[in-house]
Design a protein that fits this description.
With 240 residues, the protein is an alpha+beta fold. The chain contains 6 helices and 12 strands. The strands form 3 sheets. A 7-stranded mixed beta barrel has the order 6-10-9-8-7-11-12. The chain has a two-stranded antiparallel ribbon with strand order 1-2. The chain has a two-stranded antiparallel ribbon with strand order 3-4.
Length: 240
């Protein structure tokens, strides 16, 4: 699909699109997707939900990252981000994926298992998103949020890897708690699957999309040497 070159405002996601723009020499440009629900590109309507977690610059988490240059947060693990401990190149076509959201809120006293996928099994290339509700219950940056969050079972993680999904997204600090957090990320990345943590507004997404597929646009920073890359993630529930 080709979009005209549009400026949609400051609060927008940047997504790589094959488009033509009269004042650029290349056909690969960045087109802004507006977060306003009445945004249009060439007369097409989008129902957009911003899944990115917005953090104030005065948040204590930001202060810790600035003070401790050896912390995970100073390496990019702050807010909504994807983990890339192996520094593998992320395919550019991952910027636009079919999304599926799963209700994992009932798995508080046990690991999220394969049964969560029954209503809409994932397929190759999907962006699968798990709604635990944990971010809404415990504020980002609290000890509880980082240490006590729900976990995906290893069986579920391995199944998603075998299905060759593109992204695994979750509204917690990770799919596994320490000390299995990094091994889970690495296992996924070895097979071309990237985990995106600290997603926001997943409850609203689940309410809007239900069991329907939708489109997810993801942008990530190009910083070299960082094991965490900040992301902007936007779901369009009007299309898949």
């Amino acid at each position: 699909m080709r979009f005209s070159c549009v400026h949609a405002g400051l609060d927008a996601a940047w997504v790589g699109i094959d488009a033509e723009c009269p004042f650029l020499d290349t056909n690969l440009i960045y087109v802004e997707l507006s977060l306003a629900f009445n945004s249009r590109f060439e007369e097409e309507q989008y129902m957009l939900i911003d899944l990115s977690l917005h953090i104030d610059m005065n948040d204590p988490v930001v202060g810790k990252a600035n003070m401790d240059q050896h912390s995970f947060m100073s390496a990019g693990h702050i807010g909504t981000h994807l983990d890339t401990y192996l520094q593998t190149p992320i395919p550019i076509d991952y910027h636009s994926r079919v999304g599926k959201v799963y209700d994992a809120s009932q798995f508080r006293d046990k690991e999220v298992d394969l049964s969560v996928l029954d209503a809409n099994p994932p397929e190759k290339g999907d962006f699968v998103i798990f709604h635990t509700g944990f971010l809404g219950e415990y504020s980002y940056g609290t000890r509880e949020y980082f240490k006590q969050h729900p976990q995906l079972s290893w069986e579920l993680i391995d199944h998603l890897i075998a299905q060759e999904v593109s992204f695994i997204g979750i509204d917690t600090a990770g799919v596994r708690r320490s000390p299995e957090h990094v091994p889970a990320d690495k296992r996924a990345e070895e097979h071309g699957v990237y985990i995106i943590e600290n997603l926001n507004n997943i409850g609203a997404l689940q309410q809007e999309a239900g069991k329907r597929n939708f489109r997810v646009f993801t942008g990530w920073t190009g910083l070299k040497g960082f094991s965490g890359l900040s992301c902007k993630v936007i779901a369009d529930t009007a299309s898949a």
